[in-house]
Amino acid sequence: MKLLLRKLGIVLVALSFLILTGCATTFSDLVRSKEEGKGTSRVYQANVDQAWEIAEKILRWEGTGEIKENRSEGYMVTKSGSTRMGVWIEPIDKTQSKVTIITKKTGSSIIGLSETEFHEYFAVFANGPENKQR
Q1: Which pairs count as long-range contacts for 114-121, CB under 8 Å and 24+ apart, including other chains?
Q2: Which domain holds residue 63?
Q3: Contact yes or no for 47/53 (Cβ under 8 A)
Q4: Contact 30/85 with Cβ under 8 angstroms?
Q5: Does any domain span residue 2?
Q6: From its phi and psi, is residue 99 left (phi > 0), alpha (psi between -120 and 50) or beta?
Q7: First to last CA, the chain
Q8: 121 in any annotated domain
Q9: Whole-angstrom Cα distance, residue 20 to residue 58?
């Protein structure tokens, strides 16, 4: 009986570990997802610098943690609670940028910025008076 309980305990610990690691999402998972063509993309009437500033503003407004920027590769990553987020900004031309966001939940929480909400906020900021093309 003790042997059976011991084996059962080992199996439960192993299953718990697998479940926890299987649900974990790292920032490299976000980059890999982007390389696979995942995420939600939209083109905005904002140059790369403006788009970068708007994306940072939205992420900070959302109350995310530290934003890790890789400007040379055109992306930033951060997390908010149990959600990891990556934003990619690609130039279309001098006045337009393609903005892609990928969100990955690492837990069961339903709270957090969705890809759709990010783009809704981005559209408001991109159409604001400070970003009108002169």
Answers
A1: 115/39, 115/40, 116/40, 118/40, 118/58, 118/85, 118/87, 119/40, 119/42, 121/58, 121/61
A2: 25-131
A3: no
A4: yes
A5: no
A6: beta
A7: 80
A8: yes
A9: 29
Q: What is the pTM of this model?
A: 0.74
Q: What length is written for the chain? A: 134
Residue 44 near residue 96 (C-beta atoms within 8 A): yes
Taking a C-beta distance cutoff of 8 angstroms, is the pair 102, 38 a contact? yes
Question: Residue 117 is part of a domain; what is its CATH number?
Answer: 3.30.310.80
**What is the Cα–Cα distance from 128 to 105, expressed in whole angstroms?**
30
Pairing between strand 75-80 and 68-70?
A: antiparallel
pLDDT tens per residue, range 53-90: 999 999 999 888 899 999 999 999 998 888 899 999 99
Tokens (6 digits) for 62 = 């959302």
